[in-house]
Amino acid sequence: MLPDPVLQHAKETFVLFGCAYCHGLNLVSRGEATDLMHAALVGRDENGNRIGPLLRAGIPQTAKLSPMPQFSDLSDQQIAALVTWIHYARQQGRYQELTAAPVKRGDATAGKAYFDQTCGSCHKADGDLARVGSRYDAAGLRRALLKPKTLERERSFTLERRNDKGFAAAQQRHHALLENYGADDVANLVAYLGNLK
User: Fold this and answer.
1) In the prediction, which pLDDT does 163 show?
2) What is the CA radius of gyration of the chain?
3) DSSP class of residue 125?
4) What pLDDT score does 52 carry?
5) Is residue 92 exposed (0-12), middle (13-18) or buried (19+ Cβ within 10 Å)?
6) Would you say 51 and 112 are in contact if contact means Cβ atoms under 8 Å apart?
7) CA 101 → CA 30, 104, 108, 111, 113, distances in Å?
8) Cβ atoms of residues 104 and 183 within 8 Å
9) Residue 176 exposure: Cα atoms within 13 Å on the Cβ side
10) Which of 66, 124, 159, 176 is most exposed, with the fewest beta carbons within 10 Å of its own?
């Protein structure tokens, strides 16, 4: 049982409609089902814009994959619940994958290029991240990069929290990055940020 009722409902919906049978509750695929943990389509999804239409249309059988039935009768709320669970489970799984391996040496120059392109519009190396390399060892920096503590807070339904669009946008952006980081991206970012002392 999850403490967050929205996530608990999303999890139950994922199980109820049989998604967990083929894709696994935590997206560890069973048999010939698509690997949702690493699927590029899931990584590019924003609020169900790719997953939703696919759920409604289904997928015909191919030589490598079993067919996925169409769920054209699901409500928009049910589709949203399925999407919520898929992204949540993917974020948890990717975090586990990316932090389980030993920290490998990255390329700080490539990390800076990645940072400038992906992170630089919100973060400044000489601003909010100044001296970040002196506050963490490499493993701690990797954890902080993947799950910033400032973005981890319980879901709330108070008006103040619901109207905090900046926080919601930052959290959504970091969750999308977590779902799509490659091990080399993370190693390079850690190498670059580790030099900010």
Assistant:
1) 72
2) 19
3) T
4) 96
5) middle
6) no
7) 24, 8, 19, 19, 24
8) yes
9) 14
10) 159
- Tokens linked to 47: 């609020």
Q: What is the pTM of this model?
A: 0.88
Integer Cα distance of 40 and 161 in angstroms: 31
Q: Which two tokens stand for residue 110?
A: 């490539």
The CA-atom distances, in angstroms, between 9 and each of 6, 77, 124, 130, 197 are: 5, 11, 38, 40, 44
Give residue for tokens 């999407």: 83
Q: What is the mean pLDDT of each run of 10 residues along the chain (197 residues)?
A: 88 95 90 88 95 92 79 94 97 95 92 94 85 92 92 68 77 93 96 92
DSSP character string of 33-51 = S--TTT-HHHHH-STTTTH
